[in-house]
Design brief:
The complex is a heterodimer of chains A (about 300) and B (about 250). In chain A, helix 4 packs antiparallel against helix 5. Chain A has 2 domains: about 220 residues, Rossmann fold; about 70 residues, 2-Layer Sandwich (Alpha-Beta Plaits). Chain A has 10 helices and 14 strands. In chain A, the strands form 3 sheets. Chain A has a 6-stranded mixed sheet with strand order 6-7-8-3-9-10. With about 250 residues, chain B is α/β, with parallel strands linked by helices. In chain B, the strands form 2 sheets. A 6-stranded mixed sheet of chain B has the order 6-7-8-3-9-10. A 4-stranded antiparallel sheet of chain B has the order 2-1-4-5, with helices on one face. Chain B contains 9 helices and 10 strands. The chains are: A alpha/beta (about 300), B alpha/beta (about 250).
Chain lengths: ~300, ~250
């Protein structure tokens, strides 16, 4: 069963192609992540899927309903939290929630079970104006408003952008529990570390999907071997490694460099030896499994060179 | 001009109150010349308030210190002229061309016409952007925009540059290329004061501080912080330190 099925969706603004021929299937009850940087076309795709914008071409079904013909029915079945805070700043927490409940012909009392866990965290501030809430609380209120009509599919456009690392973890825990209640979650993020928390992913760049699958299948498909390399002088080491024969790419990842190499041309020992000879006597390397961010960078380069 | 010896910034007992709310609560630290200093903290910890004081945009309620050798209480205008500033949210004017952006910021920082001309040639050459000098900044690829706005923030040759979440929402490769520019600048002796929500980037700093509820709860090299908290990476350090926050904003 698919909650979202879109086929060959394209959308341009004037000469700029925002979304290019995208097809996706999202199964009911999964967390599906759309991962990509600013300007990749994520928000345009959200607007099309939430029936707020028509694609130039392509078709799609949301909850089994036609995206164009049945747009009105779709709107009752989905919840949408846009990237930009879009609640009424001068209404209180409670008033915002009641307003959205009324729009969908329900009441906060009727939906209380659905939103209880999240709402209980902001309930002490129910009379505060939304504009006066902290970032974390605004986010929780927006999520409550998107859930108040018990939607089957929840669309979250960059819910964690600009949010600190601690609050991001909390937010993802909430998403896990929403999924457990049977709601399908379609979420976008520019943070690659959040990708591992999704059931399935689509990686998006410049309007095109450059890779899709479960986090583990994407990692499995990574075509090169990878090393984590360290030494005392990290930045000069980066430049040295990039010039080393057999090295395909080298980028910094936290406290080490990730080196993708061609195993037919070189190996871990040769790479380290070369670095030691070049003045990095403390250079060490260990073989690692790449992460989603490595995959994104590799697919992104491949896509760019093909284009 | 330079009366602080080896430090680009020295801050003692800095406090900022808004009414009864203490946004920044008695923080002290220094940043060495040429250092890459990561200024971390949860949302609402007081980072923005502190940064505004360090950039000469707001006066402390209490405390003293110098930035680029100028007094944070008395020489705010001089601080503004002698620091560079860049954020992801605001950097270039999208509807001005590359050349016009350089000219505008050069003018704002008080460079003369001849100096601006020289700088324009030098920057376009260094950035390899001669062919796009008449392109609107808004039409450039993100990576180029970043390179350009970073260089523009250095157009008046400041000793210290403030980078306020310079890489938010940027793709992984561009983000890393940006940090390579930071290293290059730091190797030339420019002091870098940077905020970020990416904890892998915290590892790239010489030292980091983590603000919690208006105070500096931890400050050291990434290596020593990981050791101290028995953490595998800075993400874990951050969660341990910032996870103790009491206030919501």
């Amino acid at each position: 069963m698919y909650s979202i099925e879109i086929d060959n969706i394209s959308k341009s603004y004037g000469k700029t192609a925002a979304v290019r021929d995208i097809s996706l299937k999202v199964e009911t009850g999964e967390i599906f992540g759309l991962i990509g940087p600013d300007g990749a076309g994520k928000t345009t795709l959200f607007r099309i899927m939430t029936t707020l914008m028509m694609p130039d071409s392509g078709k799609g079904r949301i909850c089994g309903l036609d995206m164009v013909k049945d747009y009105f029915m779709i709107r009752k079945k989905i919840g949408y939290m846009p990237g930009k805070f879009s609640l009424y700043q001068d209404l209180s927490v409670k008033e915002n929630l009641e307003f959205f409940a009324t729009l969908f012909g329900t009441t906060v009392e009727d939906s209380y079970q659905t939103i209880k866990e999240i709402y209980s965290q902001i309930e002490p501030f129910r009379d505060r104006r939304a504009g006066k809430l902290s970032g974390g609380m605004k986010q929780k209120l927006a999520l409550c408003c998107a859930l108040v009509h018990k939607p089957s599919v929840l669309f979250l456009d960059e819910p964690t952008t600009g949010v600190d690392a601690v609050s991001r973890k909390e937010f993802w825990n909430m998403l896990g529990r929403i999924r457990e209640s049977g709601v399908t979650v379609f979420v976008s993020t520019p943070y690659m570390d959040e990708a591992a928390l999704c059931d399935r992913l689509a990686l998006i760049k410049e309007g095109s999907i450059i890779g899709t699958g479960t986090p583990s299948s994407l990692v499995k498909a990574y075509p090169h071997r990878m090393l984590s390399v360290k030494a005392g002088r990290m930045y000069p080491l980066l430049k040295k490694l990039r010039e080393t024969p057999g090295v395909i790419s080298c980028f910094s990842f936290g406290d080490s460099h990730h080196v993708a190499y061609d195993a037919t041309r070189t190996d871990s020992r040769s790479i380290v030896e070369e670095a030691v000879r070049a003045g990095f006597p403390d250079c060490t390397a260990k073989e690692i499994t790449p992460g989603i961010e490595d995959c994104f960078m590799q697919l992104s380069r491949k896509w760019t060179t093909q284009d | 001009m330079d009366n602080t010896g080896l430090n680009a910034m020295e801050i003692r007992n800095l406090t900022k109150r808004f009414g009864r709310f203490t946004a920044v609560d008695n923080i002290s630290f220094h940043v060495r010349k040429g250092e890459i200093f990561g200024f971390l903290g949860a949302n609402g910890a007081g980072k923005t308030t502190a940064m505004r004081i360090l950039c000469g945009l707001s006066r402390p309620t209490e405390g003293e210190g110098t930035v680029a050798g100028f007094d944070i209480n008395r020489e705010q205008e001089k601080i503004k002229k002698h620091i560079g500033y860049m954020s992801q949210k605001f950097s270039l004017y999208p509807d001005l061309t590359v050349k016009e952006n350089i000219r505008l910021f050069g003018g704002i920082y008080g460079l003369g016409d001849r100096k601006i001309k020289e700088k324009t040639v030098e920057m376009l050459d260094m950035l390899d952007m001669k062919d796009v000098r008449d392109t609107l900044a808004g039409c450039l690829p993100l990576g180029w925009k970043q390179k350009l706005s970073f260089s523009i923030a250095l157009v008046h040759e400041p000793q210290i540059i403030f980078l306020d979440e310079p890489t938010g929402g940027v793709d992984p490769e561009t983000r890393r290329r940006f940090w390579e520019m930071i290293y290059e600048a730091s190797m030339k002796g420019i002091t870098v004061f940077v905020t970020t929500h990416y904890m892998d980037e915290a590892e790239y700093c010489d030292r980091v501080s983590i603000m919690v509820d208006g105070r500096i709860a931890a400050m050291d090299t990434p290596g020593r912080l990981k050791e101290k908290y028995g953490a595998a990476d800075m993400d874990e350090v951050f969660r341990i330190v910032a996870g103790r926050a009491k206030r919501e904003e």
